[in-house]
Prior knowledge:
The protein is α/β, with parallel strands linked by helices. The protein has one domain. The chain is built from twelve helices and eight strands. The strands form two sheets. A six-stranded parallel β-sheet has the order 4-3-8-7-5-6, with helices on both faces. It has a two-stranded antiparallel ribbon with strand order 1-2. Strand 5, helix 6 (116-127) and strand 6 form a beta-alpha-beta unit.
Amino acid sequence: MPQTRFSFLGVPLDAYSTNEILEKIKKYINTPSGFVHIVSINPENVVIAQQNNLFRTVCGESSLALCDGIGVLIGARMLGIPLEMRTQGSVLFPQLLDLAGQMSLSVLLVGSQANLAEDIAKCYQRSYPKAKFTGLQGYQNISKPTPEEEEALLSIVNATRPRIVFAAFGSPSQELWFYSHKHLFKDMICMGVGGGFNYLSGASKRPNRYIRQLGLEWLYRLVTEPKRFQRQMTRLPVFVGMLIKEKIYGKKSRDRS
């Protein structure tokens, strides 16, 4: 069989098309096999993984590692990794909600903003009455969860037994949170969606399709969300430096071996 998982600057990347990813997720749903964790790999997460050993472990042990950012797609191709396309988590997220609705599954959406997850759950519940969509504001501050918040989450998971769980805390908080609670999510599919709740609810406006086709969502978000500027301008140069170093010195190392 051809290789499908590759190492990219210390994190994994799975070389699947979006349709192949959906088929794998259907297989996970039909034959549960423990904690299934889907992570999205973008340039910022690559840099975070270099600085945070636990996050790097979480990515390494993931069930699916999506090529989410255009920078990762370009960088992977530069290093000879045969990726044909990227699969954005924000695009896969509503596809999975529809899939869950069509399969009449139980879905849990956990957010950090009041009413956002609940509103999305109510909307999909109306569209798919045979499924079960539950939304809750899990934590006001994911860095400092309270015992009451943890207990409420445990109760809802036990009551609904979701097959798919989405969390919107932003990276790396959402991935680390899933990993630390993996005992709670046995035989469930877990995925962090970052700003996916905001886009799906209309709280944040998505760039038009021309910007998306050009892979310039990151620039659009930089302009429309100025608070991201310092964070991205700190991490993106590091990502480019890592990529150049791997392209030059990684190849020499491989040639000598």
